């Protein structure tokens, strides 16, 4: 049975069997994009990614029509993991501790590549974005944890999910310039959201 991978403009919805050579190109492009984004941030050259993968820029664009499509392919599994984690944490004894645990993982995921927090924040209200669906599902997971903590009286009731995620994305951005500061900044944030 052929491996199924996303192709072209219908990347988020259509799945078709991919030829073996196209599959290799797809996997090489993802590997090179991962390395380039880690080294140079989310603004890394797409032309250089294609060149490093041993393919032309047209091949990159056939698989990933936009930079966001490439980012979405790299981040999809991480965002899905955050959604699953959020669902699991809904049963935790302490709603506040569950929310903090999830926020810490969200911050670390948002800090994977330099410039990623800005990319994630930019998609939160852009329904046309490739990252929107993944970000929206992740936001809903965080919102459920926030609402549960608010209902338990453990988090101030006037805090909105988008505000909280923007604050945590800001922490991720700040930690790009102040390594190893995520835990300290999150602690300060958590103290600020007490009722």
From TrEMBL:
User: What top-level branch of life does the organism fall under?
Assistant: Bacteria
> Gene3D superfamilies given for it?
Tetracycline Repressor, domain 2 (1.10.357.10)
Swiss-Prot/TrEMBL keywords: DNA-binding, Transcription, Transcription regulation
**Occurrences of domain HTH tetR-type (ranges):** 23-82
Please give the Gene Ontology molecular function terms for this protein.
DNA-binding transcription factor activity; transcription cis-regulatory region binding
Answer yes or no on keyword Ribosomal protein. Answer: no
Under PROSITE patterns, the record lists: HTH_TETR_2
InterPro entries the record matches: Homeodomain-like_sf (IPR009057), HTH-type_TetR-like_transc_reg (IPR050109), HTH_TetR (IPR001647), Tet_transcr_reg_TetR-rel_C_sf (IPR036271), TetR_SbtR-like_C (IPR049445)
Q: Which residues bind DNA?
A: 45-64
Which Pfam families would you find in this protein's record? TetR_C_43, TetR_N
Name of the featured protein: Transcriptional regulator, TetR family
């Amino acid at each position: 049975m052929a491996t199924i991978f996303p192709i072209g403009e219908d990347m988020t919805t259509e799945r078709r069997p991919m030829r073996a050579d196209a599959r290799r190109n797809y996997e090489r492009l993802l590997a090179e994009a991962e390395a380039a984004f880690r080294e140079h941030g989310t603004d890394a050259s797409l032309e250089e990614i294609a060149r490093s993968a041993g393919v032309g820029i047209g091949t990159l664009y056939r698989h990933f029509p936009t930079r966001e499509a490439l980012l979405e392919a790299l981040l999809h599994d991480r965002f899905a993991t955050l959604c699953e984690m959020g669902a699991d944490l809904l049963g935790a004894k302490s709603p506040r501790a569950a929310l903090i645990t999830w926020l810490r993982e969200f911050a670390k995921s948002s800090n994977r590549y330099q410039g990623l927090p800005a990319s994630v924040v930019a998609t939160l209200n852009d329904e046309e974005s490739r990252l929107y669906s993944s970000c929206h599902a992740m936001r809903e997971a965080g919102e459920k944890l926030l609402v549960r903590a608010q209902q338990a009286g453990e988090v101030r009731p006037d805090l909105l999910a988008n505000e909280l995620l923007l604050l945590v994305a800001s922490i991720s951005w700040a930690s790009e310039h102040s390594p190893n500061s995520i835990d300290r900044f999150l602690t300060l944030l958590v103290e600020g959201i007490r009722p």
